[in-house]
Design goal:
There is one protein chain. This protein has 8 helices and 35 strands. The chain is of the alpha/beta class and about 425 residues long. Strand 8 (about 185-190) and strand 9 form a beta hairpin. The longest helix has 22 residues, at about 160-180. The radius of gyration is 21 Å and the shape is globular.
């Protein structure tokens, strides 16, 4: 019995959230799909996008190379890597894996789009031959009435704003699942901490809306507000006078200051100065300069639409900030307008009133938007890694080169080095 995880073509619509990372490694509600897969404790093979295959092999060994799967065997489940990492998703997968082999084929569907199938008719070799488009190609659009095929509704990511929507809806439940699985010390009602965590007397802890979970080595500065549901990863440092509230999730080795609300911050990112970050997703190795602020509410209080590369999409959400790709930076006093996305490896200055192309210096306020060469980002990556005692591997360098080529359409019309 095994699982075949596929980064299907619709993963590309999650730019910039899943551009520089595996889709299964996108954090939402304090969890990643790869974390849930690991708890199932069965062989899992994963077909990743080409530019991330080395990263998958080195950083996520639980996701094995599908070329090593028994070619003639059939996976129990084929799943899209866009499945939302929630407790409900885990329960669904556990239930499906217990189904007997003679159970009719069952398709997992979200908003009419296939995101998985139980008991596929094809072997690993046949699925690999069809590639990333397997699920969509094999999904029966109009099955005959007598067909035994069944469908099951599940939650997945179709666009970046789905990550924030799902995060807010499932964060508290996901944290309760983590608390039940791991060994924490409960230092007061609703506050769970790992080893080496000390909270000063002058910190306000509010768990009325959900628990607070602080992993090993978290540091909290005095005169801070921590309001649950809240998750801080290993060695996260909260600066003095910080205000973290209403659904903040920060990964390991991050620095957080100022006001943060309902946001996801991936590992190795710095947002340590004053400024507001709300209802936003921030990738890894991002630095937000002092005074950087995001808007997460329109002046009209209306619902927010976003101009994605695939077109303008109505999110149906009133509160929504921005999506910042890995390795991007903001200068001091940068202001990011509502519902904008910032590509990977970019630098922002002044007012960000439009979406920001990847690998660009964005200073539209000053009449300057120009490409940023990959060589500059590789040097920057090396300096950032050295500051955190992280080795810059050849695969990390190659990833920057691959991202530069992959995101060329972002920079169409920019004059410069591209």
């Amino acid at each position: 019995m095994s699982i075949f995880l596929v980064e299907d073509p619709k993963v590309d619509l999650l730019h910039p959230v899943a551009t520089a990372r595996l889709c299964a490694a996108v954090t939402c509600g304090g969890l990643r799909l790869v974390d849930l897969i690991e708890t199932l404790n069965i062989p899992t093979y994963s077909l990743a996008r080409t530019h991330l295959q080395a990263i998958q092999r080195l950083d996520h060994p639980v996701l094995q190379d599908p070329k090593n799967a028994p070619k003639d065997s059939h996976p129990k489940l084929v799943l899209s890597a866009r499945l939302a990492p929630t407790v409900e998703t885990l329960k669904t997968l556990e239930k499906l894996l217990k189904e007997p082999n003679d159970t009719p084929t069952t398709w997992l569907v979200d908003r009419g789009i296939p995101v998985g199938v139980l008991h596929p008719n094809e072997s690993y070799e046949a699925i690999l031959n069809q590639g990333r488009g397997y699920l969509e190609a094999r999904f029966p659009k109009n099955p005959p009435p007598e067909s035994p095929t069944q469908t099951l509704a599940v939650n997945s990511f179709q666009y970046p704003h789905d990550v924030i929507r799902t995060h807010m809806a499932n964060f508290a439940a996901n944290l309760q699942w983590l608390i039940a699985r791991r060994e924490y010390q409960q230092i007061r009602d609703g506050v769970f901490v790992g080893k080496g965590v000390k909270i000063p007397d002058w910190v306000c802890l509010d768990v009325d809306a959900g628990p607070i979970v602080l992993e090993d080595g978290v540091q909290v500065g005095p005169f801070s507000l921590l309001r649950g549901p809240l998750y801080l990863g290993r060695k996260c440092k909260v600066l003095e006078h910080a205000s973290l509230k209403d659904g903040v999730c920060a990964g390991h080795t991050t620095k957080i200051g100022g006001e943060v609300e309902a946001s996801i911050i991936e590992p190795y990112t710095n947002k340590q100065h004053h400024g507001f970050l709300g209802h936003s997703y921030v990738g890894s190795w991002v630095n937000l300069g002092a005074g950087t602020c995001t808007s997460d509410l329109k002046n009209t209080y209306g619902l927010i639409s976003i101009d994605y590369p695939a077109g303008r999409i109505a999110t149906g959400m009133q509160f929504l900030g921005c999506f910042i790709g890995d390795y991007s930076k903001s200068a001091i006093n940068t202001s990011i307008f509502t519902g904008k996305w910032i590509g990977v490896c970019s630098a922002m200055y002044g007012f960000v009133t439009t979406n920001v192309p990847s690998f660009s210096n964005y200073a539209k306020l000053f009449g300057q938007v120009a490409p940023l060469p990959s060589s500059v980002m590789i040097s920057t990556q090396q300096r950032m890694f050295a500051r955190r005692n992280v080795e810059q591997r050849q695969c990390d360098i190659e990833l920057i080169h691959a991202l530069f080529d992959l995101t060329r359409p972002d920079r169409e019309g920019l004059i410069g080095l591209d």
